Amino acid sequence: MAGTVDAESATLSDKSSAVSRSGARDGGPTSLSVGPLAAWRELLIFRGARRPRQELWVSVVGFALVLGAWIVATESGFVHPQILPSPRAVVEAWWRMFLDNDYLADIGVSVARVWIAFLTSAIIAIPMGVLMSGYRGVNALFEPLIDFIRYLPVPALVPLTLIWLGIGEGSKIMLLWIGTFFQLVLLVADDARRVPKEFIETGRTLGASDAALMKDILLRAMLPNMVDSLRITLGWCWTYLIVAEIVASTSGIGFQIWTARRFGKTPEVFAGILMIGIIGLVSDQAIRFLHRRWFRYLH
């Protein structure tokens, strides 16, 4: 009898372990046993399990509520169209801009400017941030200067960039770079400092050189956080686009927005603003998707 009880207990234990492992693979220990109502309640639990389907619906509802409020405020006449155009007027203006103003080319120009400035910032900021986190002398040399520059308002630097670089592409990309680089380098340095010291000490025990420590241990350990930092600073880069493209520019989304403002075309201004928001949202979600694919163990 005792042998039978032990065998049954072992069988139940094995089944429980299998269910736990399966649940862990599916995104949480309760993913196999949670019903639809409990899945919605999970959204209100502090650091609850991921529920992608429910989260997507909540996001859709959030956008729908804002759109609904916008429609009610404009179609009812509560807000003057010159102040807040209706969604229908914005969509019509958007369509006209694509048909009459070669808007697709302006979008391409703006995307190219942002990505050139962003990639240039990342190429410089990543190794510099790693060095600042690893060598106190490098950090003491650069951090106070970077802290000072990052508080300077980018619009105030427009006259200097025009004097130094003229009215060509260089000044526009430089403004975007200034708004991105000095923030990113400090974020990268902080990401590197968050790597546990035990990782570095283990590498030194095994005889790793400084270069090997930074390349094979530090970069690999900080990579998930660094990708998030890159995603955030890409958003900041887009916020400076208008500043970069309103000065001596003949192309780009910012140029179209500023031209529409000059002639009081509020729907066209909103169309340009929403275009930047859509591009930014798509970029942000794409990087989030890659983050989930590359670092599955964190999600």
Descriptive notes:
- This protein has 299 residues and is mostly helical.
- It has a single domain (87-298), classed as MetI-like fold.
- 77% of the residues lie in helices and 0% in strands.
- The protein has 13 helices and no strands.
- Helix 6 (136-150) packs across helix 8 (169-193).
- Mean pLDDT is 85; it is low at 1-32.
Q: Quote the beta fraction.
A: under 5%
**CATH architecture annotation:** Orthogonal Bundle
CATH fold name, please? MetI-like fold
Kindly report the average pLDDT value.
85
Task: Count up the helices.
Answer: 13
Q: Terminal Cα separation, in Å?
A: 45 Å
> How helix-rich are the residues, as a percent range?
over 70%
What is the C-alpha radius of gyration, as a whole number of Å?
A: 26 Å
The profile of the biggest β sheet is:
none
Concise account of the structure shown:
With 299 residues, this protein is mainly α.
Question: What descriptive keywords fit this protein?
Answer:
single chain; 299 residues; mainly alpha; MetI-like fold; 13 helices
Task: Write the SSE topology.
Elements: H1 2-25, H2 36-41, H3 52-75, H4 87-100, H5 103-134, H6 136-150, H7 158-165, H8 169-193, H9 197-205, H10 210-239, H11 241-245, H12 253-262, H13 266-294
